[in-house]
Each structure stands twice: as structure tokens, then as C-alpha cells.
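Page 42, continued from yesterday. The earlier attempt failed because a stray header line got pasted into the input along with the sequence. Redoing it now with the clean sequence only.
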Amino acid sequence: MKLRTGDTVLVISGKDKGKTGSIMRVLTKERRVIVTGINMRTRHIKKTVQGPGRKIRYEASMDISKLMFLDPKTKKPSRVGFAVDAEGAKKRVARVSGQAIEHVKGKKAERTAAPVEKKQEEKKKQEALTTEAAKTTKKPPFWKRVGFGSAAMMEEAEVTEPTHMQQDHSVPEQTVHVRKGARGS
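This time it went through. C-alpha cells are written below.
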């Protein structure tokens, strides 16, 4: 296929005839492409327990025969061909102007590629947040600050005997009952 992601194309037939857009995705096996802002469809999604109902507008794929490449130099529709340059590399060429076509990354590639500097800045921010969290001391729970719970009650009563939770809960010694031969004994 001669068209690639990022190429600017003109629609030559169909409901969007005369509109231009850049290619977002190429479906080579089906010989179809998805172009930004062209062949828009609406999908209605029914409401569910997890979320409300909504309408989604998206670009549907269209056949490659309905599109023509826009020459970047002349801004006119052009066919695309291939030529071998002096170095022996195969390049795409616009037939109208004869100029080589440079590959332009599409929107999808630009969104996913994050610069290394941004990643380093994010790491520094995360490290700063973790060090600040480590520096701050934890507050005691609400009930201890206000004076609720068994600890506060013991302080008020000044009881020296242990509470139910502080008592020894080990298994006591068991007495073995030996049955004699008679009934009911």
C-alpha cells in the first residue's frame, strides 16, 4: 500500500467528498484506512449500573480507493510512486511535483511517545512526595485524641485489675470424670 499513517489525504468520493484529513491507522489486509474527522459514525451506548448512557462519535474506516494523497509542495491531489535514490534507498515520490515524500508520524505515535525528560521529572516528583510523606509523623487515631475506647476508660477509672482483653485466656486444667458401672452415675 502506498499510503501510510500521518499522510494528508483528500476524499474524492462519498459523503465527505472534498474534505481533507490525516491518516490515523492503515488496515492493510482490508485495504482500508481511518482518517481523522472523515466518515464519522455515532454509537449509542445504553446506560448500565457502572455508568450513564452516552453517544460516542468515532471515525470509521473507509476504502483506500476513495482517497488521494495531497502533495505537500503543491497542495494538489497526486498519485504516489516509488523511486530509488543515489544511495540505493527506495523512497515514495509524489507524481505531480516529483518530490520525495517524508514520513510523518501520525497522532497515535505522537501521543504514546513520551520524552525522556518528562519521565525524569515525574520520577523526581514521586520521590519528593515519598520523602515528604516519610517526614510527616502519623497522627494518633481520632478515638485516642478525643478519649474514646478502653484505654481512655482505664485512665479515667484508674482500675488496677486487668480488663477482659488483658486476662489470661489459657486453657484451665481439666478434671477427668470416671464413670462407674451404674446407670446415671
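Notes: The beta strands are 8-11, 20-27, 32-35, 40-45, 54-59, 62-63, 67-70, 77-78, 80-84, 90-94.
Reminder to self: strip header lines before submitting.
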